């Protein structure tokens, strides 16, 4: 049974990891310091391509936080320009995350461009380009999206029922060289998901 889990710091307590905000190995830190460098910088592909239910990539809770800005996108650029400041998405960036108005406006325009691209041309992926896929970590107890939240939210809004993803399992992470000891212990303790439940994406084999 796969359970959605976006912040898994609690799981690391059993490995006696540091609990301070600066040193805790949260899944977000693993993503930033281990997974992203492995895939983007070193260009080492870990995982395989599968189709998975959209709900695994974009949970209902996360989708609700973006649904209002997506509805504005759907009404066109002029309507968006007149109303984006009223959206929860805009207010969250400004007041919760303390982003500048210029930065937030730029990100909204990029988000809008992505929306229009998926709406008019479909959800395009290329197995030779890992960045064209959402990245999803899956074990028997944890699901955590490493990348692709904007694309996933657009796809969900447009009615997609499943998405192609780069699916990463505990064994895939353990293939990465020089993992910190605490991270190694944690992933060794996780069980592999039942991958036969997911439909392989073409050219998924290595």
Q: What would you note in describing this structure?
A:
This protein has one domain (9-200). The protein has ten helices and five strands. It has helices at 9-12, 27-41, 54-57, 60-74, 77-83, 88-96, 101-121, 149-157, 170-174, 181-188, and strands spanning 48-53, 135-138, 143-147, 162-168, 199-200. Residues 1-23 have low confidence and may be disordered.
List keywords for this structure.
5 strands, 206 residues, five-stranded mixed β-sheet, alpha+beta, 10 helices, 47% helix
Secondary structure layout:
Elements: H1 9-12, H2 27-41, E1 48-53, H3 54-57, H4 60-74, H5 77-83, H6 88-96, H7 101-121, E2 135-138, E3 143-147, H8 149-157, E4 162-168, H9 170-174, H10 181-188, E5 199-200
Parallel strand pairs: 2-4
Antiparallel strand pairs: 1-4, 1-5, 2-3
Instruction: Give a short account of the largest sheet.
Output: 5 strands, mixed
Low-pLDDT sequence parts:
1-23
Tell me the number of structural domains: 1
Structural class based on helices, strands and sheet pairing: alpha+beta
- Percentage of helical residues? 40-55%
Q: How many helical stretches?
A: 10
What is the average per-residue confidence, as pLDDT, rounded to a whole number?
A: 86
Query: What coarse outline follows from CA principal-axis ratios?
Result: globular
For the largest sheet, list the strands in their spatial order: 3-2-4-1-5
Give the H and E element order.
Answer: HHEHHHHHEEHEHHE
What is the beta-strand fraction?
5-15%
Beta strand count: 5
Q: Over the alpha carbons, how many angstroms does the gyration radius reach? A: 18 Å
Distance between the amino and carboxyl termini: 27 Å
């Amino acid at each position: 049974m796969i359970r959605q889990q976006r912040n898994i710091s609690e799981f690391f307590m059993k490995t006696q990891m540091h609990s301070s905000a600066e040193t805790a190995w949260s899944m977000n830190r693993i993503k930033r310091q281990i997974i992203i460098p492995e895939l983007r910088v070193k260009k080492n592909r870990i995982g395989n391509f599968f189709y998975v239910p959209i709900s695994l990539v974009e949970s209902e809770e996360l989708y609700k936080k973006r649904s209002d800005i997506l509805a504005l996108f759907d009404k066109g650029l002029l309507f968006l320009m007149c109303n984006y400041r009223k959206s929860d998405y805009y207010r969250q960036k400004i007041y919760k995350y303390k982003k500048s108005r210029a930065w937030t406006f730029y990100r909204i325009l990029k988000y809008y461009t992505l929306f229009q691209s998926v709406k008019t041309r479909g959800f395009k992926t290329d197995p030779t380009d890992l960045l064209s896929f959402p990245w999803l970590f899956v074990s028997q107890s944890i699901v955590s999206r490493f990348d692709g939240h904007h694309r996933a939210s657009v796809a969900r809004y447009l009615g997609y029922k499943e998405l192609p993803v780069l699916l990463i399992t505990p064994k895939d992470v353990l293939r990465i060289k020089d993992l910190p000891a605490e991270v190694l212990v944690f992933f060794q303790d996780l069980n592999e998901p039942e991958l036969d439940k997911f439909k392989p994406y073409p050219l998924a084999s290595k």
